[in-house]
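Researcher: Please predict.
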Amino acid sequence: MALGLLLPAVGLLHCSSSSSGVSCSSISPDAAATTPLTTCYPDNDGITGGAYTIDLAVDDTGFTSTGGDDNDGGITKNVIATQNDAMVTLTLTNKGTVPHGFQVSCVSVCMSYPSLPAGCSPLACFPQPQSTIAPIAPGASMTIMFNTPTPDGLLYPFSSTAPGDGAVPGLNGKNSQWSLM
């Protein structure tokens, strides 16, 4: 499973570099992170933390959510926006006819942090297994709590964990994203 999450990110590691730090593309995606996260990933907007309640519905075609930094008047959407280093309470409700779950993919940090100090990972991931929901039955709900990662300014795709959902565009992470600000 971990290899499956790493392979898509490897293609993203061809990022630009700057005069300070280490070029993101020169760091192995499984590099040991030995430097403090705040040194590796300085906050892009100067705001971190907070508490968010996310209601996420999944059906046989995709995800819709309310909550987070919901500035659209409560209209459901397939993009979740929260701050980095925030506490999230996420409730997934399966409104479909077959089991569906939830997981957030790891991403390359290169777009927001093209030059990293030594000891920093070029990948950012939501905490596992806290941020993952195994497939739940139709009509069922499950609530999880976790902290969002430190690297911000990134889009983390999310998808269903159910077998077969990878073939459904609205459930395979191509149309649903978690934005950390």
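Model: Residues 1-20 have pLDDT under 50 and may be disordered.
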